[in-house]
């Protein structure tokens, strides 16, 4: 049943929740699957009159339910005659929460809800122009549909991705260069999904999904809201890159973008991963676009609610501090650490589709596989060990970077050597920073102890090396445990500034390499031809 429900989520793009029943001998169980859990009814024994009556009542009630009660989304409808879907998107960005939704059409899904539980994120390539039989659908926007953790009150919801994207759009217009405009997320519309039932307007959230289910307090699901966002940029996944200079440009673009967003908007992304980076093209040059602010946090807002009940991020790329579920404050350094892991992961698999010599399952034989198995504590131990020293990084991780030129020796492969240099510089700047004002207590990936001998009280005889009666013996103080992650928070601004210098340096070099390797553009190319080739590439 679990496998079948998962397939339903993947292929039915308007499925919000799912019903099913399991038959075990003479007993029938009704099951309801939501975002965080599946709940089951008491068994109905069909060998008894009472059990048969309950089962028949169930089937009759199901037959009388409306679509939204059966788990379908009334704001997303399939149009079989046109071979596409019609979807309504809320428009809270400029018009307020009472504005009428915008209507879009899509027939291409770039991200499926293929997990049994979670946010059930889907992404569609869409257009606001209704297609016809003679006029095929040409996508101009991407729509993200997800069930994210939220607060019930919109005004108090500090996790609202729509608010954050609106803030980014409004704030960064005066702070970015025109040529960098392409790497920043741009929201067109978005908000909480709602639908009309009778004369009532119903917000689509977990309260709506579970309105007929009564939970014990300890079993109540976390509150989620169904949110839809329309973005103007259409990009490609990281695996479509074809060279190391493209890859370095893209990942450095992402961290440059992240740094600007944090500096001017005080928004911390908290989920740097391969799924949240898109490749966009600018005159043939690959640039990086950071997406998915579901896990982001607006640090300028004072939070009155407890932290969200999830460990934010994507497992192989989570920072040690995050995986440890530590009380140490999360900062931009955690996201730089995630980027370091992402570069190592991608370099091990191979950069670009033509150079991707390994599949994800091939990593199981390598030390890097420890980043996604064995539980949180095991992953923490592995990362502490792999990044404790540069030698450990080279021995356990960098030596297994996929060869770009087919050579196992990095000295014969300048691209591989380039990637190794990048991860070593990032590791050193993050974990072994030696800038002025950054002390030894900020270095390392594990806690360590320091202890001092207190000065003994001695007379003059004691000073000559003889102990006299009544002189106090040396007292060893209790060792002090130093947490370098905690100490780095105090020096976060200095370390982040140094990391940005490294990122800017590699970005500039990689972008120049891209420019040199690209053929000169054709002079006479019409606008329609340009747009056509761009969409064909997408």
Automatic annotation (TrEMBL):
<dbReference type="Pfam" id="PF17667">
    <property type="entry name" value="Pkinase_fungal"/>
</dbReference>
<protein>
    <recommendedName>
        <fullName>Fungal-type protein kinase domain-containing protein</fullName>
    </recommendedName>
</protein>
<feature type="domain" description="Fungal-type protein kinase">
    <location>
        <begin position="1"/>
        <end position="345"/>
    </location>
</feature>
<dbReference type="InterPro" id="IPR040976">
    <property type="entry name" value="Pkinase_fungal"/>
</dbReference>
<feature type="region of interest" description="Disordered">
    <location>
        <begin position="511"/>
        <end position="538"/>
    </location>
</feature>
<dbReference type="InterPro" id="IPR011009">
    <property type="entry name" value="Kinase-like_dom_sf"/>
</dbReference>
């Amino acid at each position: 049943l679990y496998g079948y429900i998962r397939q339903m989520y993947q292929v039915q793009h308007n499925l919000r929740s799912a019903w099913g029943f399991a038959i075990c001998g003479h007993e029938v169980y009704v099951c309801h699957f939501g975002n965080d859990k599946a709940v089951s009814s008491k068994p109905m024994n069909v060998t008894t009159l009472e059990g048969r009556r309950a089962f028949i009542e169930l089937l009759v009630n199901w037959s009388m339910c409306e679509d939204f009660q059966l788990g379908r989304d009334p704001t997303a409808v399939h149009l079989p005659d046109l071979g596409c879907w019609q979807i309504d998107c809320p428009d809270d960005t400029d018009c307020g929460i009472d504005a009428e939704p915008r209507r879009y059409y899509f027939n291409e899904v770039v991200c499926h809800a293929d997990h049994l539980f979670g946010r059930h994120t889907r992404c569609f390539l869409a257009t606001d122009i209704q297609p016809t039989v003679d006029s095929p659908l040409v996508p101009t926007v991407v729509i993200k549909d997800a069930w994210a953790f939220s607060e019930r009150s919109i005004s108090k919801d500090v996790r609202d991705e729509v608010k954050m994207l609106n803030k980014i759009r409004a704030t960064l217009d005066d702070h970015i260069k025109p040529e960098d405009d392409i790497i920043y997320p741009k929201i067109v519309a978005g908000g909480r999904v709602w639908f009309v039932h009778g004369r009532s307007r119903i917000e689509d959230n977990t309260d709506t999904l579970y309105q007929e289910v009564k939970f014990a307090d300890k079993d109540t699901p976390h509150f989620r809201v169904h949110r839809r966002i329309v973005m103007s940029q259409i990009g490609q996944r990281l695996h479509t890159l074809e060279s190391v200079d493209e890859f370095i440009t893209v990942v450095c673009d992402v961290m440059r973008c992240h740094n600007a967003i944090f500096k001017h908007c005080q928004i911390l992304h908290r989920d740097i991963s391969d799924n949240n980076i898109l490749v966009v093209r600018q005159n043939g040059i690959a640039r990086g676009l950071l997406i998915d602010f579901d896990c982001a946090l607006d640090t300028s807002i004072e939070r009155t609610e407890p932290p969200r009940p999830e460990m934010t991020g994507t497992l192989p790329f989570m920072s040690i501090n995050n995986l440890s579920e530590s009380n140490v404050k999360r900062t931009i350094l955690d996201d730089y650490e995630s980027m370091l892991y992402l570069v190592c992961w991608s370099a091990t698999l191979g950069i670009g589709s033509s150079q991707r010599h390994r599949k994800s399952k091939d990593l199981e034989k390598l030390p890097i596989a420890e980043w996604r198995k064995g539980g949180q504590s095991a992953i923490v131990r592995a990362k502490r060990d792999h990044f404790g020293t540069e030698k450990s990084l080279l021995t356990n991780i960098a030596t297994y970077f996929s060869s770009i030129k087919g050579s196992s020796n990095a000295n014969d492969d300048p691209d591989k050597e380039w990637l190794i240099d990048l991860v070593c510089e990032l590791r050193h700047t993050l974990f072994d920073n030696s800038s002025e004002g950054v002390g030894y207590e900020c270095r390392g990936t594990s806690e360590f102890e320091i202890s001092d001998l207190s000065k003994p009280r001695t007379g003059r005889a004691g000073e000559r090396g003889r102990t006299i009666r009544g002189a106090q013996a040396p007292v060893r103080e209790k060792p002090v445990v130093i947490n370098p992650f905690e100490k780095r928070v105090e020096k976060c601004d200095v370390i982040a500034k140094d990391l940005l210098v490294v990122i800017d340096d590699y970005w500039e070099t990689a972008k120049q390499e891209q420019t040199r390797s690209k053929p000169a553009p054709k002079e006479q190319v019409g606008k329609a031809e340009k747009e056509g080739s761009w969409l064909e590439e997408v």
